[in-house]
């Protein structure tokens, strides 16, 4: 249900799930289906529509493309049955964080996994991480993989980083989506933190 439609895009769909109406943040609406703002579209198709909209002084992805072309192109809605929140205000930010105190909500997030031999001390470990080695005084963002016999100290590992076996990292920040090869060694100092950007081919876990 929509408590405050001005915060959301809302849609109507037919029996096949095709979007028949799309309103972006209306002041008043009778629609109850909310758009999550997640769109999947072919790259070439999107570029063509953006170029056409730009030639006509359009600049808004939703209003000038999705709403405009909904009757010409086939847009389909797919129901989301897991937790979702639109964080656009201080109140919604607060409520979303409080929601994670509810066990049912947390079940929609993949838990961190600590395999046999993992050691974690004084660290923040986000959902989806898999740890085989040692992590101390560090912050791990979502979906970080720490390989066997690794040591991570005084470091920040950003989202979706894969760290190969036998790697040592200390006083570093590892950029998102990186792949650290096995047997690597990166050491900075508290006064000179090293930033690591490695985009190697991803190992198969």
Describe this structure in words.
With 205 residues, this protein is of the alpha/beta class. It has helices at 43-55, 61-69, 90-99, 103-106, and strands at residues 9-13, 19-24, 33-35, 113-114, 119-121, 124-125, 130-131, 134-136, 139-140, 145-146, 151-153, 156-157, 162-163, 168-170, 172-174, 179-180, 185-187, 194-196. Strands 4-7-10-13-16 form a five-stranded parallel sheet, with no helix packed on it. A hairpin with a 5-residue loop joins β1 (9-13) and β2 (19-24). The protein is elongated and about 55 Å long. The chain starts with 8 loop residues before the first strand and ends in a 9-residue tail after the last strand.
Q: Could you name the key traits of this structure?
A:
alpha/beta, 205 residues, five-stranded parallel sheet, single chain
In short:
By secondary structure, the protein is an alpha/beta fold. The protein has helices spanning 43-55, 61-69, 90-99, 103-106, and strands at residues 9-13, 19-24, 33-35, 113-114, 119-121, 124-125, 130-131, 134-136, 139-140, 145-146, 151-153, 156-157, 162-163, 168-170, 172-174, 179-180, 185-187, 194-196.
Element layout with pairings:
Layout lengths: L8 E5 L5 E6 L8 E3 L7 H13 L5 H9 L20 H10 L3 H4 L6 E2 L4 E3 L2 E2 L4 E2 L2 E3 L2 E2 L4 E2 L4 E3 L2 E2 L4 E2 L4 E3 L1 E3 L4 E2 L4 E3 L6 E3 L9
Parallel strand pairs: 4-7, 5-8, 6-9, 7-10, 8-11, 9-12, 10-13, 11-14, 12-15, 13-16, 14-17, 15-18
Antiparallel strand pairs: 1-2, 1-3
Largest sheet properties: 5 strands, parallel
Q: Average the pLDDT over all residues and give the rounded result.
A: 87
Measured on Cα atoms, how large is the radius of gyration?
22 Å
Helix segment count? 4
Q: How would the global form be characterised? A: elongated
């Amino acid at each position: 249900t929509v408590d405050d439609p001005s915060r959301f895009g809302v849609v109507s769909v037919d029996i096949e799930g095709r979007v028949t109406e799309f309103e972006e943040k209306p002041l008043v609406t009778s629609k109850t289906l909310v758009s999550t703002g997640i769109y999947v579209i072919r790259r070439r198709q999107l570029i063509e529509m953006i170029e056409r909209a730009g030639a006509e002084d359009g600049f808004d992805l939703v209003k000038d493309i999705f709403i405009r072309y909904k009757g010409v192109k086939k847009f389909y809605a797919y129901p989301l049955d897991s937790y979702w929140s639109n964080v656009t205000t201080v109140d919604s930010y607060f409520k979303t964080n409080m929601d994670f105190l509810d066990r049912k909500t947390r079940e929609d997030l993949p838990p961190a996994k600590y395999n046999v031999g993992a050691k974690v001390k004084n660290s923040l470990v986000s959902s989806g991480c898999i740890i085989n080695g040692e992590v101390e005084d560090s912050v791990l963002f979502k979906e970080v993989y720490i390989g066997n016999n690794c040591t991570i100290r005084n470091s920040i590992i950003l989202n979706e980083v894969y760290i190969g076996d036998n790697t040592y990292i200390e006083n570093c920040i590892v950029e998102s989506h990186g792949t650290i090869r096995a047997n690597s060694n990166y050491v900075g100092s508290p006064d000179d933190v090293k930033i690591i950007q490695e985009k190697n081919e991803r190992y198969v876990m």
